[in-house]
Design brief:
Strand content: 15-25%
Keywords: ATP-binding, Nucleotide-binding, Transport
Structural class: alpha/beta
Helix content: 40-55%
GO molecular function, one term: ATP binding
InterPro entries: AAA+_ATPase, ABC_transp_ATP-bind, ABC_transporter-like_ATP-bd, ABC_transporter-like_CS, P-loop_NTPase
Family: Belongs to the ABC transporter superfamily.
Order of helices and strands: EEEHEEHEHHHHEHEHEEHHH
Strand order of the largest sheet: 6-7-8-3-9-10
CATH class of the domain at 5-93 and 164-234: Alpha Beta
Protein name: ABC transporter ATP-binding protein
Number of strands: 10
Shape: globular
């Protein structure tokens, strides 16, 4: 079986003044088509460095990264950049404030030559509607949108390329809890609808439960656990994972019942 993404003994070494730092240390893992793999760990655990290597921002110092069975070069070609897209943590900083929303969404269509030029404005409207925004938001500026709306635009921009793999780097951490839940629901809906594959980088284990199929736990650059989400939360293998789980805020049974009741009402009214 060919995995969509495979990392084989991958390390990233940064040279400092008098020593080297292994930000990622001999990591091997596979991501299957259509799944969501969450990558979790504390700050400095290597999560973002791993994401940057998958995206081609950093080449691996050691090891190989393969996509659909092909080893990716250190310098990615345009087709590779189209196939693997990024949704960043802060959508305001990732969107050009001088461009309208429509111009930001049209840019990847123009760069990759997707669709007829005369139909790209219509495609921008379709992308906005797909992420739950009106098509006429194309004329707005990023500053005029809320945080949740801007993140929807960032997701739409990643979808514009018809990519196979989306790397989501802390995509909900800058959002309040209610908006976070709506964005997670959108991501789940889009994954089912489009058959997308996600690598979901986060430090928030409470988010992981709602989106991930498997969880990769990183500690100081090393992969210490890789298991289905249910097992990670019910019977984690590694002591570090148990410490992370133990730090997740606990809610009462009454709060869980109330949350489920409110979510049902939200889904009915949505």
């Amino acid at each position: 079986m060919t995995h969509l993404l495979s990392l084989h003994d991958v390390s990233k070494i940064f040279a400092q003044s008098k020593h080297e730092v292994r930000a990622v240390d001999e990591v091997s893992l596979d991501v299957d088509e259509g799944e969501c793999l969450a990558v979790v760990g504390e700050s400095g655990s290597g999560k973002s460095t791993l994401a940057n290597m998958i995206l081609g921002i950093y080449p691996p110092s050691i090891g190989t990264i393969s996509f659909r069975g092909e080893v990716l070069p250190g310098k990615r070609e345009l087709a590779h950049r189209r196939a693997i897209q990024l949704v960043q943590q802060n959508p305001l900083s990732s969107l050009n404030p001088q461009r309208s929303i429509g111009a930001s969404l049209r840019l990847p269509l123009d760069v990759h030559g997707l669709g007829e030029r005369s139909q790209r404005s219509d495609r921008v409207g379709q992308l906005l509607e797909e992420v739950g925004l009106p098509a006429d938001y194309a004329g707005r500026s990023p500053a005029s949108l809320s945080g949740g709306q801007r993140q929807r635009v960032a997701i739409a921009r990643a979808l514009a390329c018809e990519s196979d793999l989306v790397v989501l780097d802390e995509p909900t951490s800058a959002l309040d809890v209610l908006v976070q839940a709506r964005v997670l629901k959108l991501l789940n809906d889009l994954r089912r609808k489009r058959g997308l594959t996600y690598v979901f980088i986060t430090h928030d284990l409470s988010v992981v439960r709602n989106i991930a199929d498997r969880v990769a736990v990183f500690e100081r650059g090393r992969l210490v656990e890789l298991n289905p989400t249910g097992k990670v939360f019910s019977d984690p293998d590694h002591a570090y994972t148990r410490r992370l789980i133990g730090a997740v805020p606990v809610v009462t049974a009454e709060e869980v019942r109330l949350r489920n009741h409110l979510m049902k009402k939200e889904n009915v009214s949505a």
